[in-house]
Amino acid sequence: MILEARDLSLSFGATPALRGASLQVEAGEMLAIMGPSGSGKSTLLHCLAGILVPSSGEVWFAGERLDSRSDEARSAVRRDRFGFVFQFGQLVPELTALENVALPLLLAGVRRAAALKRAEPWFERLGLEGLGARRSGELSGGQAQRVALARALVAEPEVLFADEPTGALDSLTGEQVMDLLVDTARSAGTTVVLVTHEARVAAYADREVIVRDGRVNSPALTP
Ligand SMILES: Nc1ncnc2c1ncn2[C@@H]1O[C@H](COP(=O)(O)OP(=O)(O)OP(=O)(O)O)[C@@H](O)[C@H]1O
Q1: The dihedral formed by the CA atoms of 201, 42, 3 and 84, expressed in degrees to the nearest 10
Q2: β strands within 39-128, DSSP E
Q3: Which residues does the UniProt record annotate as the domain ABC transporter (predicted)?
Q4: Would you give the DSSP letter of residue 90?
Q5: Which listed site, 110, 111, 173, 221, has its alpha carbon 20 to 30 Å from 119?
Q6: Burial 121-132 (b: 16+ CB within 10 A, else e)
Q7: 105: CB partners within 8 A, 6+ apart
């Protein structure tokens, strides 16, 4: 097991988002987190990734407690060991596509020339040949999402967190992005935690769980 949520609770003001959510993720598996709108899926993902800290419960990553560590320590784990793809607005508009992909390496202290060199092969891998010099405003939604995927994977994260990664795309473009996400994650052995409300997207995963009212159910156990 690489990642575990133990009995997480978290409220936003008077709104409970998580109410005793528990989840285990095996190394190398692709897990889909499904459930109705407002059920707590994104909050659970943010807790697993060390972005949010639960008010009670524990998050464990690679044998170590994550939630009780300092902001700096959790940021370092996110930067060095996790990758992220979200639904919208993730590319830095002032940077070229190539610089966007290289960004996690630059933040990790890799020199600029070396970072850009490591970013380059991702353009061919994800069908983005010739687009490295474009800025995000000059890319289609599907192209921008593939650039975001390349950026999430360039530093070879142990876990890729994806929150509605195809939510802003039409279904064909969404399928292409999911195919690439699955292929690249599988070939690298990356663990994937994917939040989606679309069964079609969840079908790419090895396993799915359902979040309802801030708790996690395995579908097989739900009557
Ligand atoms: N930053 C926030 N401030 C206040 N309330 C929040 C915040 N984030 C989430 N919530 C509330 O917490 C609950 C769970 O939200 P969350 O985003 O985790 O649900 P979700 O299952 O991901 O929903 P969706 O599928 O609509 O994205 C909701 O009632 C939501 O309104």
Answers
A1: 70
A2: 56-61, 64-65, 82-85
A3: 3-221
A4: -
A5: 173
A6: ebbebbebeebb
A7: 114, 115, 118, 119, 154, 155
Distance of CA 30 to the CA centre of its chain: 11
Distance from Cα 12 to the centre of ligand 1, integer Å: 8
Nearest CA to ligand 1 atom 31: 38
Q: Which two tokens stand for residue 47?
A: 């807790």
Strands (E), 128-184: 159-163
The helix or strand, by DSSP H or E, that contains position 182, with its residue range, turns out to be: helix 171-188
Going residue by residue through the chain (223 aa), what tens digit of pLDDT does each one get?
999 999 999 999 999 999 999 999 999 999 999 999 999 999 999 999 999 999 999 999 999 999 999 999 999 999 999 999 988 768 999 999 999 999 999 998 999 999 999 999 999 988 899 999 999 999 998 999 999 999 999 999 999 999 999 888 888 888 988 999 999 899 999 999 999 988 989 999 999 999 999 999 876 554 5
CA dist 155 and 119 (Å) reads: 9
Looking at the CA of residue 44, tell me the nearest atom of ligand 1.
18
Cα–Cα distance measured from residue 91 to residue 103, given in angstroms and rounded to the nearest whole number: 10
Q: Report residue 52 as tokens.
A: 């949010």
